[in-house]
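As promised in the previous annual report, we have extended the structural survey to additional targets. Below is the entry for Aldehyde ferredoxin oxidoreductase N-terminal domain-containing protein.
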Amino acid sequence: MLKYAGYDHIVIHGRAESPVYLLIDDDEVVIKDASKLWGHDVYETDSTLKKELGRNVCVAAIGQAGENMVRFASIMFDRYRAAAKAGAGCVMGAKNLKAVVVRGSKGIRVAKPKVLFHIAEELRNSLDPNVSQGIAAFSRYGTTSLLSLYNVLGCHSVRNYQDVIFDKMEDISADKLLDKYVVRNISCSVNCPLNCCHWWEIRDGPYAGEAGAKPEYIVINSMGIHLGVNNLEAILHF
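The corresponding structure token record, generated without further manual editing, is:
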């Protein structure tokens, strides 16, 4: 979306005196008050901003962890995609920057569109799940395919590295996730043919009614295997 607004990147200097968010609407760039958003999680922040500004904006926001400058805090994009390395959310919190909101309508000019489309078509064909078993498996499971593989290889960090093989893998396996909770596969990018992400729903139990996108391998590993938790619904809830 940032590229569609006409920008390649943003550099933010200094620190606001009070919570703010940055609104980029094509050529209009405004710093706006975010006091009412401070203290809210990324889901609430995303919903509030899109209700006020329209559903056609992209929101990069921090939650309470970023606000309190937790060193491993993430920046969350449109709720579900994370910039999770190196504590980027902590940096936004240190700047009192709750969110960056972007709406772009300019499009992108390509110097040689025919060449680009030809290359894109070749790449798309190479990722066709119908022509590769490996691609088909990744399209079905996404990164959760690594759960069982790493268990076989002995690569897990079970109970904070007390072991490397999780003896209750069948309780949180990719197959169980797909069979019981996944409603459909989705894509993190409009034109990606893999659709390796998942939209899941919990239909019964204490977390009935909860739904969301993904989870990736790292979430199930961090909130499950690493902690010795074999309750998949609890992992999805967190």
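The two ends are 28 Å apart (CA to CA). The chain has nine helices and nine strands. These points will be discussed at the next consortium meeting with the crystallography subgroup.
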